[in-house]
Amino acid sequence: WRLYWQYRWLVIGTGIVGVASFNTLIYAGLHSTTTNNALLLNSCIPVLIVLFGALFYRQKLHLLQMSGLIISLVGVLTIILHGDLSRLIDLSFNPGDILVFTAMVCWAFYTLWVKMLPPHINRTGLMGAQIAIAVIGLLPFWLWEMASGAQVVWRTESILAFAYVGILPSVVAYLLYTFAVARVGPVRAGLSIHLMPVFGVLLSALFLGESLHSYHLIGISAIAIGL
Predict the structure, then answer these.
(1) How far apart are CA 180 and CA 192, in angstroms?
(2) Is residue 96 within 8 Å of 33, Cβ to Cβ?
(3) SS3 sequence, the chain?
(4) With 80 as the cut, is the pLDDT of residue 163 above it?
(5) Could you tell me what percent of the chain has a pLDDT over 90?
(6) Which residue in 6, 67, 111, 138 is a FRET match for 162, CA 20 to 30 A apart?
(7) What gap in Å lies between CA 205 and CA 208, rounded to an integer?
(8) What is the average pLDDT across 181-194?
């Protein structure tokens, strides 16, 4: 506790920005934006980490890192746009996109701030503290929603969805990402975000029977080269 208290502002900041704000904004934004827009905005995270790191924390930009970032970003765009750059013209943005992009900004700062926490702070204990802070921060909003008449519909599908979201993205993924930031730094860890569309393509082919196209393979190859 003495150690957490010593770094209390970073612990509080990562809990509010990375856990409470990021999740709330992205889940709210996904109600009113398209999958393509969300993936496109999500791919901005590594760019934002590099940009904010250079602007606010004097992190050096290495040519090799920037080259890899650009190549992997091209791979992401290839998958999202189906290999057709003219699709960029047809993209339209709405208020949900603003929420999703704000979530991406929050995640970029969360990544940089986690790196500033000393390595001898136990990462599992840190995750527990961040979740506790996020729950306290979100409590007034939950009470407001309940007072406004919002209800949880309890059925098998919603329980399974809560279990998945509550355990894997909200705890396991956070822990693994935090360990990665501590070991390889924010820029390298942030680049792993570009693997999301790769896993999306592979999982949809495996479980949903969707077809793999040449632009998928080109995009995946570019992401692999960039990483």
Answers:
(1) 10
(2) yes
(3) CHHHHHCHHHHHHHHHHHHHHHHHHHHHHCCCCCHHHHHHHHCCHHHHHHHHHHHHCCCCCCHHHHHHHHHHHHHHHHHHCCCCCCHHHHCCCCHHHHHHHHHHHHHHHHHHHHHHCCCCCCHHHHHHHHHHHHHHHHHHHHHHHHHCCCCCCCCHHHHHHHHHHHHHHHHHHHHHHHHHHHHHCHHHHHHHHHHHHHHHHHHHHHHCCCCCCHHHHHHHHHHHHHC
(4) yes
(5) 39
(6) 111
(7) 6
(8) 87
Residue 194, pLDDT > 90, answer: no
pLDDT digits (tens, 9 = 90+) for 105-116: 999 999 999 999
pTM of the model: 0.84
Type of residue at 127: M
Q: Pick the closest to residue 191 from 68, 89, 10 (CA basis).
A: 68
Side-chain-facing half-sphere of 112: CA atoms under 13 Å: 22
Decide: 60 and 66 in contact? Cβ < 8 Å.
no
pLDDT band at 180 (very low <50, low <70, confident <90, very high): very high
Mean of pLDDT values over 153-180: 92
The label of the residue with tokens 């999301």 reads: 196
